[in-house]
Amino acid sequence: MTDVALHDPMTYAAGFPHELFRELRETDPVSHHDHPAWPRGYWAVTRHADVQRVSRDSATFHTSPHPFLEEAADQTDSGVSELLISKDPPDHTKLRKLINSGFTPRRVAGLEDGIRTRVDSILAKLAGRDECDLVTDIALWLPLHVIADLVGVPEEDRKQIFEWTELTFGFDADVTAEQRGDAMMQMYLYADAMCEDRRKRPRDDLMSVLIQAEVDGEQLTQMQLDLFFLLLQNAGSETTRNLITTGLLVLLDHPDQLEKLRADRSRLPTAVEELLRYVSPVMQFTRRAGADTEVGGVPIAAEDRVLLVYASANRDDRAFGDPDTIDITRHPNDHVAFGAGGPHFCLGANLARLEAKIMFEAFLDRFDGLEVTTDPATLPRVNSNLIDGFVNVPIRWKALTA
Ligand code: HEM
Q1: Which residues form the pocket of ligand 1, taking CB atoms under 6 Å from any ligand atom?
Q2: Mean pLDDT, the chain, as a whole number?
Q3: The domain that contains 71 carries what CATH number?
Q4: Mean pLDDT (whole number) for 156-172
Q5: What b/e string do you get for 114-149 counting C-beta neighbours within 10 Å, with b at 16 or more?
């Protein structure tokens, strides 16, 4: 098979190359690829069982210095290596415990009413219209506001935070490295000031909880608080917006599934799981072998990079019957959209599920005659090797209940 540039965003310009993934799973499930900045290239792991094995074996497979499939050789200078997702046990274990103490199921469940109110206000802005952009008018706003509500960012500061987030993590090729660096610095300064304020006047928000969190006599440093603030904006927003957008496109493209869901709303939780599997909003992350080892019988040398291709594992027929068919009643559904287990499993999985459930309820209940006005195959996709999604999706409807 010719070498496939799985690190190149252009490979995903028209969506996931599922035929290619299938071929890799069948003939070369742990395949070697060249990388412009990594002299030893990387190994792509495409089968579900192998992706699980690597994810769960954090003693052998590390995320440090970072798990991103970047073109640039190293990201250690930009603070990326200090992010939660770039840390290995035991540092990761300690940090995650501290962060978990603020990120409890109770706090996430407590956001439900706020999410409903936010969906109402997003849709209220569409009153009197019969068309909009699904991404820029609907899908991107919900997660941005939910994270801001969770962390405690006041309404009046949000526009600025959202602009910095887009500059820091957006996939706009016109944004310079300097602009990204400046925006990141502004976010750190903002988080510093916010923490300072919460130390004097604690509130019922995540920032106040994290400042006070203590595990084994240790607290989060200011740098760790800043970095987590930054990571949350990215991890929580780019991902969920694409689940909402691509998930809705998939449902509109499969009217039988949409009708099934409309007929029985109790299917929403399993439908969200199936959309996560089918859509894979986060396509892949990497690991680094800490010692000589093997995956699926293929020898991997210490320091080799291993790519976990979630988008392929989620279509592996060894794990899912009829994997290319969307079935909103699929159960069990052992998808790896939030990671395949192990210490880095998505911290925000339940929050993302809740947001998607409430948003899809609104699509079902509030819109009549909803349709996409342009063939999705021709719509621009995010320029990324990490996140899959659309930049713009024009939609229209016959009636919208405010
Ligand atoms: C559909 C939405 C989402 C998807 C598909 C997604 C996917 C992922 C994946 C694949 C990982 C890496 C797992 C691993 O390496 O084993 C991850 C980690 C993470 N996610 Fe999510 N995520 C989503 C939403 C969110 C939200 C809403 C938040 C925050 C509120 C969030 C916060 C995080 C954090 C902090 C990590 C790093 C955890 C660690 O390293 O310990 N994610 N996510």
Answers
A1: 55, 84-85, 96, 147, 231-232, 235-236, 239-240, 243, 281-282, 285, 337-339, 342, 344-348, 351-352
A2: 94
A3: 1.10.630.10
A4: 87
A5: ebeebbeebbeebeeeeebbbbebbbbbbbbbbbbb
**Mean pLDDT lowest for which of 60-74, 176-190, 235-249, 327-341?**
60-74
Q: Residues 6 or more apart from 128 whose CB is under 8 A from it?
A: none
Q: Reduce the DSSP state of residue 91 to 3 states and report it.
A: helix
Q: Domain for residue 151, yes or no?
A: yes
- d(CA 342, CA 93) in angstroms, rounded, equals 11
Q: What is the pLDDT of residues 108-122, one digit of tens each?
A: 999 999 999 999 999
If you take atom 34 of ligand 1, which residue's CA is the nearest one?
347
Question: How many domains does the chain fold into?
Answer: 1
Average pLDDT over residues 375-399: 95
State whether the Cα torsion 378-380-385-389 is positive or negative.
negative
| H helix intervals, 254-348 | 255-263, 268-279, 310-313
Residue 1 lies in a domain: no
pLDDT at position 364 over 90: yes
Question: Has residue 73 got a pLDDT over 50?
Answer: no
Q: What is the pLDDT of residue 163?
A: 92
Q: Answer whether 389's CB lies under 8 Å from 245's CB.
A: yes
What region does 165 belong to: left with phi over 0, alpha with psi -120 to 50, or beta?
Answer: alpha
| DSSP-derived secondary structure letter, 356 | H
Q: What are phi and psi of 298, to 5 degrees?
A: -95, 125
Cα-atom radius of gyration of the chain, to the nearest Å? 21
Ligand 1 center to residue 301 CA distance, Å? 28
- How far is Cα of residue 41 from the mean position of the Cα atoms in its chain? 25
Q: How far apart are CA 374 and CA 371, in angstroms?
A: 9
- Cα of 87 to ligand 1 centre, how many Å? 14
Residue whose CA is closest, atom 18 of ligand 1?
Answer: 346
User: In which domain, by residue range, is 342 found?
Assistant: 9-400
pTM: 0.96
pLDDT tens for residues 274-328?
999 999 999 999 999 999 999 999 999 999 999 999 999 999 999 999 999 999 9
The verdict on residue 4 lying in a domain is: no
DSSP string, 19-40: HHHHHHHHH-SEEEE--SS-TT
CA angle 13-16-18, nearest 5°? 140
